[in-house]
Amino acid sequence: MQRIQLSFPQVDERLLSQFRLSLYDEMEKACSVLHFCIQEDEDRRYRHFHCQGWPKEEHTILVYEAWMSALVNAIRFYVSAKEEEWIFRRIVHHHCYNRAVGKNRLFRYVLEHVRDRCEEGEDKKRYNRHQIEQEIIAYLENYHILQLDGFFRFRLREYIEELCESVDVCIEQYIAEEEHGTLLKRLQTFFFALPYRTDLLRLVHTSRFEFTYYNEAWEELVPSASLYSPAEVGLVYADEEAAIITALAAFSPKRIVIYTRWPSHGSIATLERLFADRITVCTEFSFPVHIEPEA
């Protein structure tokens, strides 16, 4: 098998011991089918790992795959470590960074979501984990010297660009979720502090964002024309949902029963999050004869 030189940049010395350990561990995993030898030397810019492998018995595709897998996984360690550095720098220099309350959570959130996208190849991105490994294999099949920093910066340039785009999307998504969560807690505090005006409120879900309101005796109720609700309602929810929530604030019910044929509709989920254990959702029901909601 071809002798391979992996050149590790001295500027990344903080990662050197872990890279060395990864390289040796991966080679050890292949010891059932091949022998290996790794020699090291260095110059001002690089620490060079000269890797040589040869089969214990005959040279088969299994031996070749084990050899390539060991090299690829060691290189993947370096790529993953540099990914984290790029992600961290991208986060702290993002214009939304200072708006984040939980900055450690932000980093974990972005890292997890970006890695999931890379694993699954989401959003029709060119690169996922498998494709990066194929890039490494293609390079090693044509060249016997691989400079890790150059490979990451140039061979994976498009991947880095996609990585940065994914990080930006995740940051904005996290900030939106965090701010939404903060506003939602304020709304929950507001609504649960209201004195009860109605013991039981029935909501018949007629279509999309349309509900008809009834009391416990199935008498139709009409929301007051002049209703008050905190400003957070308009900030968190669209007009249709805001109108429903404002109506519920006016009725201030102790219990809410929703009758719907669309339990997964967004408006139902919104009310469940906001009013929590006050709500019961019914999907199997019959109405008094004078109640005829739209089909």
What does this structure look like?
This is Sporulation protein YtxC. It comes from Aneurinibacillus aneurinilyticus (Bacillus aneurinolyticus). Pfam families: YtxC (PF08812). The chain has 295 residues and is of the alpha/beta class. It folds into two domains: 4-186, no CATH class; 195-282, no CATH class. The chain has nine helices and nine strands. The model has no long low-confidence stretch (mean pLDDT 87).
Provide the structure class: alpha/beta
The percent range for helix content is 40-55%
* Overall shape: elongated
Strand content: 15-25%
Say how many strands there are.
9
Low-confidence stretches: none
Strands of the widest sheet, in order across it, are 7-6-5-8-9
- Rg, rounded, reads 30 Å
Distance between the termini: 71 Å
Order of helices and strands: EHEEHHHEHHEEEHHEHE
Q: What integer is the average pLDDT?
A: 87
As for the number of domains, it is 2
Number of DSSP helical runs: 9
Largest β-sheet summary? 5 strands, mixed
Topology:
Layout: E1 4-9, H1 16-29, E2 34-42, E3 46-55, H2 61-92, H3 103-120, H4 129-142, E4 145-147, H5 148-155, H6 157-193, E5 198-207, E6 210-214, E7 220-221, H7 232-236, H8 239-251, E8 253-259, H9 266-275, E9 279-282
Helix pairs in contact: 1-2, 2-3, 2-4, 2-6, 3-6
At a glance:
The protein is of the alpha/beta class. It is built from nine helices and nine strands.
Characteristic terms for this protein:
alpha/beta, 2 domains, four-stranded mixed β-sheet, 51% helix, Spore_YtxC
